Amino acid sequence: MRLTPHPPDDHPAPAATAVRRLWRRLVPLAVLAVVAPAVVAVTSGPAQAAAVDTGAFYVFVSRHSGKVIDVSNYSTSDGAPIHQWSRTDTLNQQWQFVPVDNGYFQLRSRQSGKVLQIASAEDGAALTQESAGTNTRQHFGVADSADGYVRFVNRHSRKALDVWEWSTANGGRISQFSDLDGANQQWQLVKLGGGSTPPGAITVAADGSGQHRTVQAAVNAAPANSANPVVIAISPGTYRGVVSVPSNKTNIQLLGMGSSPSAVVIVERHSAGTVKPDGTTYGTSGSATMTVSGRGFTATNLTISNDFDEAANASQPGHQAVALNLNSDRSVLSNVRLLGDQDTFLVGGSARSYIRNSYVEGTVDFIFGDGIAVLHSSQIHEKRATGGPVTAARTPAARAYGFLFYRCNLTSSAAAGSSSLGRPWGPDAQVLYRESTLGAHIRTSQPWTDMSSNSWRNARFLEYRNTGAGAGTNSNRPQLSDVQAPNYTPQKYLAGTDGWNPVG
C-alpha cells in the first residue's frame, strides 16, 4: 500500500486517518523488526528519564532521517509549526530542558523562548511552539531507547514525538503517534554550550569564584605553544577590558558558561579616534576589544562587543571601532555575538575562520579585511536606520577566496533598498553570498558599490541562489553558475594547503 504524503504542515483529512493509521502500524513495524525489536507502550507516569543537563542547550537529531527538530522560518510566534530540517545548529534548532514536575520537562526554544506543545491527544497531532504555561500538552518525558537514543513522550497524550509518515525531507512534519519506539521516534541528544565546566579548564569569574577575575589573566596563565586545546571557561558576567591572544598562545578555547551568548560579554569602548594616555590614538585595528593571533582559536557561546557609540560621538573623528580583530588561522566561532557600529569584525590576512550559528551587527563595512571567513547559518544585522554596506573585503589578488556568506540571514530595520552587500576595500576583493536570505534593506537594482578608486565591477563579487525581498538577478548582480558552485563551498574556502575542514 502506498499513500501520497500531505505537505509538511497539513493535517490528514478525517477520511484518510484510519487508512494512514493502518499504514503506519504495518509498514513501520517491518522496519522495527530490524531497528527496534521491542515495542514499548507508555501508559502512565513519565517514562524513565535519560540524564539531561538543564543548563545546556541541545539539538534533537532524528535517527530515521538524520535531520533535527526545527522552528519553521525562525518564527517567534505562538502556533508556529515545528518540522525537521538539515542540521545547522542555528538558534531555531536549539532546545533547553526546563523541569516542571514528576520528572517531566518543557522543551524551550533558544530562538523564541517558547516551548513545544502537541496540538491534541490524537495520533498525527502536529507539534507547535507556544508561550509556556501549565498545559500538560507542553510536558514531555524523556525515555531511554535503544543505542543511546531517547523518545519524547507527551504527558497529556502518552504518545511519542515522531517524524510524520517516515519523511526524510526538509520540512517533514513533527507530530505524535502511539509509542512504537521506531527509528522515526528515536532522537539523539546533541549537547551544545552551557552546562558543566569541562575538566581541567581554566576558570574565569568576575566575582572571584574562579581561578581568575579577567579573561586576559586566564589567557596569560595558559601554556604557550600548546598542541592541545586549552579551555578557558568563563562564568556569566560582563568583562570590561581589552583581551589579546598573542601568536604564542595556540589552541585557546573560550567557552561561555551561560545559558546564552548574551550571558558572557567581553566589551570595551575604544574607537580609532579615541586618544590614549600618551596622546596617540588607537587606530582601526588597535581599537579592537579582542585581538587574536594565536592559531587554532575558538570561541563558543559568548559576546564580544565594542560599545563605542558613533552617533553620540558624531564630532569625533575616527568612528571605526572593532569588536574582534581575528588574525588566527584555523579559528572557529560558534554561537557567538559580535556587536559594534562601524568596522565590527576585522578578518586579518592570516585568518582562515569559520563562523557558525552566530550573530554579527554593525553599521558600515562591519565585516572587513584581507583574510578568509566563512559565515554559515548566521544572522548579519545592519543596525543603522539609514543602512550601509555590509562588507569591505581586501582579498589579495593571489588568493582565490575571501568572504563566504553561506545560508545566512541578512536582517535590518532600515528602509527598503538602503543597504548594499558590500564594497571593495581592495581592488580584488572576493565576496560570495550563497543560498542566503537577503532582507528588504538590500538594494535589488544595485547591491554592490564602489569604494574610493576601487570599482565593484572589477572585484570578485558573486551571488548564488539567494532568496528574500533583497534577492534578485540583473546585470549589476553577478551570479555564480551551477558549474562553478562546487568550487565555492565552505569546505573549499577553508581547506588551504592542509585540508582543514571544520564544517564536516
What does this structure look like?
- The chain has helices spanning 14-35, 215-221, 283-286, 490-495; strands at 56-62, 68-71, 82-85, 95-99, 105-109, 115-118, 127-130, 140-144, 150-154, 160-163, 174-177, 187-194, 202-204, 230-234, 237-240, 243-245, 252-256, 264-268, 290-292, 298-306, 324-326, 331-339, 345-347, 352-356, 359-362, 367-369, 372-376, 379-382, 389-393, 403-406, 409-412, 420-424, 430-434, 437-438, 460-464.
- The relative contact order is 0.07.
- A hairpin with an 8-residue loop joins strand 6 and strand 7.
- With 504 residues, it is mostly beta strands.
Radius of gyration, in Å, reads 25 Å
Shape: globular
Task: Give the amount of beta strand, in percent.
Answer: 25-35%
Please count the beta strands (DSSP E, at least 2 residues each).
Answer: 35
User: What is the residue-mean pLDDT, rounded to a whole number?
Assistant: 88
Distance between the termini: 38 Å
Helix count, per DSSP? 4
Identify low-pLDDT runs.
Answer: 1-45
> Biggest sheet, open or closed, and with what strands and sense?
16 strands, parallel
Portion of residues within helices:
under 10%
